[in-house]
Design goal:
The complex is a heterodimer.
Chain A (H helix, E strand, L loop, with lengths): L1 E5 L2 E5 L7 H8 L18 E4 L2 E4 L5 H4 L3 E3 L12 H8 L9 H14 L5 H7 L9 H12 L2
Parallel strand pairs in A: 1-5
Antiparallel strand pairs in A: 1-2, 3-4, 3-5
Chain B lengths: L10 H10 L31 E3 L5 E4 L9 H13 L6 E4 L3 H6 L19 H23 L6 E4 L2 E4 L4 E4 H9 L28 H5 L14 E7 L6 E5 L10 E7 L3 E6 L2 H10 L2 E4 L8 H11 L7 E6 L2 H6 L3 E9 L11 E7 L2 E6 L4 H12 L6 E5 L13 H11 L6 E4 L2 H6 L7 E9 L5 E10 L2 H5 L30 E8 L13 H19 L4 H8 L4 H14 L10 E9 L2 E12 L3 E12 L6 H20 L5 E2 L2 E2 L18 E5 L14 H16 L14 E2 L1
Parallel strand pairs in B: 2-3, 7-17, 15-16, 19-20, 23-26, 23-27
Antiparallel strand pairs in B: 1-2, 4-5, 5-6, 7-10, 8-11, 9-10, 12-20, 13-18, 14-15, 14-17, 18-19, 21-22, 22-23, 24-25
Classes of the chains: A alpha+beta, B alpha+beta.
The complex binds FE2/S2 (inorganic) cluster (2 copies).
């Protein structure tokens, strides 16, 4: 059993403490917006915020995440108002297949909280997610659009 | 229909299916109670021909048979239909007919297969006719209601206007009446110059859900009572399961069943996938690896190298003059051997499928590039007839050719068959996905070029040795044992024609098929052929003491479309002016999938082995550009895919199995490594070429040629990581 606070809601989940947070979120809490890509913290598809910090949830156990504030892609918008990153992603048609984009958006949202006007170098350093479709150009342009708004 | 429906693409069926479009509203359907012959969508709205459903509120649903996998074809195909339909684009949505529905209606939606950059170019004609047919019927219905000639009415933006009287109505209002009309058989399509929506970079129709986590991919499918399966197939291709010790894991949390899948794999079914995967890793499995366990990258390379020797048999793919004689008597000749490795598709979402089986019905939910092939696999694995099966396509997290295969569908059905009535979601781990790809084929190429005393290229011998994809996946497409697709990009004519005129030319292929299963990997045979040819073109230019662009231009006089894209790229990158200090340029061109493409790169190199790519320019002439915004994204994406393979890719074989296991050993480019791709679209009209793949062909050679310009070193094998070359 583990108590997790995800998107402001408390979930009491029947999982072993060493279960990766990713799978507890997807399978036990039923929030499938967070994706599995590698399971070894390489690709970023599973990125969520833990206490506001972009974190690869496949590399964090449920016991480590307990008691912390977890935000997934489903919890990024406030009510019906999309987060500015989601809005920019729609306005600039960033996703191709879209599978990496939950993680990409969560990573970018965290970057913009920390650095509202990131330089290209900041983006290069902070955004290390894999996108096999190759949306990097649109990702970069959308970040700059948000930053200059 | 029965379960012996051929899983292969059937050209004849394709033609018949195409011809059937617009031929009737009620094809293959029973009309209960003798009512009007109207086919209705699930919500009761009438179909106006098979491609279009119009709802009373004027919203339009456009049927899409091909698969969206990120490449944007869903939106592009809808644009094609909507252009002719003259509907309000803001009210358009799309839906996939299922393969089962298609079979029941005599393939009214034609071919579902989405590969070979074919999504739009192979269906553009009949989907536009589908839109035009519906428009004519809607206008006819309005005209009949008004008792005026249809010729006095026009349609735009879902509004029909009777021009003399100024009366108007909307599509939604006349849809019911239109659906009862006999469809016209000879609709006329618009002249391309009158297109309003085709050619516009309208927004994709499927973006919003991809930003909120609500898009359902195969991995996200949930069905009541569903269990999850993890699978391990014999790591040595062709090997079998000898035994496994089920007792070791039966007590583990959540485990429900251990299933042998065919002869080669074992799956664990559990309440959650995490439990299934954890138990599978603890399950002792003994494999019968067979002789393939002796194969290694070294043994494959040796076998392929043997195929480069002239004495070995080879198939001729393109020829003129007498290249061997001309080389023998030439004033000067140069020779080089190149190689290209296996590559995994590594779609962002690993393979998966969900299946539920009972003796009466088998249904599958999966991402697939070919709904009909997935359907055929479902019939075969379930043993049920077509009318008892169906496949529901969900969004795939990438395809790139991998999801044209149906191995994962077959596995899911076989597992579900062991637990009738229980939906089973089979998900491969990334490690399983790396171990059981359908890999970009492995090849080597020996090229010999010969010059006369004035440094004119008089002969070229291009000898390819290696794997044939068709041999493994579509043997019926071989021609007298020869694989014509092996010559993509260096072919005599057709959609992947060679762009140079050489007086004495010999292009041939010595087929060598190792046991590693090949597949259609974005760009397919264009990838290695473009690297080999375009890098060697640079070597030839250097040997002749000429500028690489000028050297090419001289050979391209008879290939104006190839030349036009090359010139477009040269102009954009500023080839005629010196590159900035420390920056070096490379250029390449090729034709593939009916499109002419070229690319140029500007790079700098530090310490001889750290590459920074500063600029990429890419040009394409696909005939027509349906959605320039999406074409731009496909071009940029193809460079990310192609350069990831060049720098980080390469799958090696040891003890008969693939050595790479995840993104730590099979890396992919990140944002910091990728510059903006400046695309130059020069659609010349009159033909329809593909978009998703062609430009990948020029990605690697443009960078490799720039690397030579920077360092004087030729790189003749991929990936660069094996030569200690990486991104700066
Ligand atoms: S799934 Fe967590 S980083 Fe790839
Ligand atoms: S959009 Fe497909 S992997 Fe990023």
């Amino acid at each position: 059993m583990a108590n997790l606070t995800i998107n402001g809601k408390t979930f009491t989940l029947d999982v072993e403490p060493d279960t990766p947070l990713l799978w507890a979120i997807r399978e036990n809490a039923g929030l499938t917006g967070t994706k599995y890509g590698c399971g070894i913290a390489q690709c970023g598809a599973c990125t969520v915020h833990i206490d506001g910090v972009a974190t690869r949830s496949c590399g964090v156990s449920v016991s480590e995440a307990a008691g912390k504030k977890i935000t997934t892609i489903e919890g990024l918008a406030s009510g019906n108002t999309l987060h500015k990153v989601q809005e920019a992603w729609i306005a600039q048609d960033v996703p191709q297949c879209g599978y990496c984009q939950s993680g990409m958006i969560m990573a970018v949202a965290a970057l913009l909280t920390e650095k509202p006007k990131p330089t290209d170098a900041d983006i290069d350093e902070a955004i290390t997610n894999i996108c096999r479709c190759g949306t990097f150009q649109q990702v970069r342009e959308a970040i700059h659009t948000i930053a200059s708004a | 229909m029965n379960k012996h429906v051929s899983p292969r693409m059937n050209r004849r069926a394709f033609v018949i299916g195409t011809a059937a479009v617009g031929a009737g509203l009620a094809i293959g359907l029973d009309i209960p109670f003798g009512g009007p012959a109207v086919v209705r969508a699930a919500d009761g709205s009438p179909e106006i021909g098979a491609w279009v459903v119009v709802r009373p509120d004027d919203t339009v649903v456009i049927r899409i048979a091909r698969s969206e996998m990120g490449q944007g074809s869903l939106t592009g195909l809808a644009q094609l239909v909507a252009e002719e339909l003259e509907c309000d684009w803001s009210k358009v949505s799309t839906e996939y007919p299922t393969p089962g529905q298609s079979v029941a209606r005599k393939r009214v939606w034609g071919d579902f297969s989405t590969g070979g950059s074919r999504g739009i170019r192979s269906s553009q004609d009949y989907v536009r006719k589908g839109g035009a047919t519906a428009r004519v019927m809607l206008i006819q219905a309005a005209a009949e209601a008004w008792k005026v000639p249809a010729s006095e009415c026009t349609a735009a933006n879902s509004v029909i206007t009777h021009t003399p009287s100024g009366k108007t109505t909307t599509y939604g209002k006349v849809a019911e009446a239109a659906a009862k009309l006999t469809p016209p058989t000879d609709v006329k399509l618009k002249d391309p110059k009158d297109w309003k929506l085709i050619g516009k970079g309208v927004k994709r129709l499927d973006t919003a859900e991809k930003t909120t986590g609500t898009m359902i991919y195969g991995i996200d499918v949930k069905l009541p009572g569903m269990l999850n399966a993890a699978i391990k197939d014999c790591p040595v291709f062709g090997g079998k399961v000898k035994s496994f010790d089920e007792a070791k894991i039966t007590g583990m949390k959540g485990v429900k069943k251990v299933v042998k899948v065919g002869d080669t794999a074992v799956a664990v079914v559990a309440d959650t996938w995490w439990h299934a995967k954890t138990a599978l890793e603890a399950l002792p499995i003994v494999w019968d690896e067979g002789d393939n366990a002796k194969v290694s990258s070294e043994s494959i390379a040796k076998w392929l190298t043997e195929g480069l020797a002239n004495e070995q048999p080879a198939y001729v793919g393109n020829k003129n003059g007498d290249a061997k004689a001309a080389i023998a008597s030439a004033a000067k000749k140069i020779e080089a051997v190149y190689s290209y490795p296996y590559q995994n598709h590594a779609t962002m979402e690993p393979m998966n499928a969900t299946a539920v089986y009972t003796a009466d019905k088998c249904e599958v939910w999966c991402g697939t590039q070919n709904g009909e092939a997935a359907f055929a696999a479902t019939l075969e694995a379930s043993g049920l007839p077509a009318e008892k099966c169906d496949v529901h396509k969900v969004m795939p997290g990438g395809g790139f050719g991998r999801r044209g295969q149906t191995d994962y569908v077959r596995q899911a059905v076989l597992i579900a068959k062991e637990m009738p009535g229980t939906p089973i979601k089979l998900l491969w781990s990334r490690e399983e996905d790396m171990a059981h790809g359908r890999y970009h084929p492995i090849t080597q190429c020996k090229m010999t070029g010969a010059f006369d005393a004035d440094n004119n290229l008089v002969a070229l011998h291009y000898r390819l040795s290696g794997q044939s994809i068709l041999f493994s996946l579509r043997p019926e497409a071989l021609q007298n044992g020869m694989d014509p697709a092996a010559f993509q990009g260096v072919a005599q004519s057709g959609e992947a024609a060679f762009g140079y005129s050489v007086p004495n030319l010999l292009v041939e292929h010595a087929m060598r098929n190792p046991h590693v299963p090949p597949g259609f990997w974005r760009g397919v045979n264009v990838n290695h052929n473009a690297i080999y040819m375009e890098c060697f073109m640079d070597e030839l230019a250097q040997a002749a003491g000429q500028d690489p662009l000028e050297f090419r231009r001289k050979l391209m006089g008879n290939h104006p479309k190839h030349l036009a894209v090359l010139n477009a790229v040269a102009e954009k990158i500023g080839w005629s002016t010196p590159a900035p200090q420390g920056i070096y340029r490379g250029i390449a061109q090729v034709m593939g999938y009916g499109s002419y493409v070229a690319g140029a790169a500007e790079i700098s190199v530090t310490d001889g082995n750290k590459i920074k790519v500063h600029r990429i320019v890419a040009s394409t002439d696909p005939g027509y550009v349906v959605n320039p915004a999406q074409v731009e994204r496909q071009i940029a994406g193809s460079f990310v895919y192609g350069l990831s393979a060049l720098f980080y890719g390469g799958c090696t074989v040891k003890d008969g199995r693939i050595e790479q296991s995840n993104f730590d050993t099979y890396n992919s480019m990140r944002i910091n490594e990728m510059p903006k791709v400046e695309s130059v679209m020069v659609p010349s009209g009159g033909f329809w070429g593909g978009v998703g793949e062609p430009t990948i062909g020029v990605a690697a050679p443009a960078v490799l040629n720039a690397y030579f310009a920077a360092t004087g070193k030729r790189i003749r094998s991929v990936p660069l990581r094996d030569q200690n070359i990486t991104f700066a």
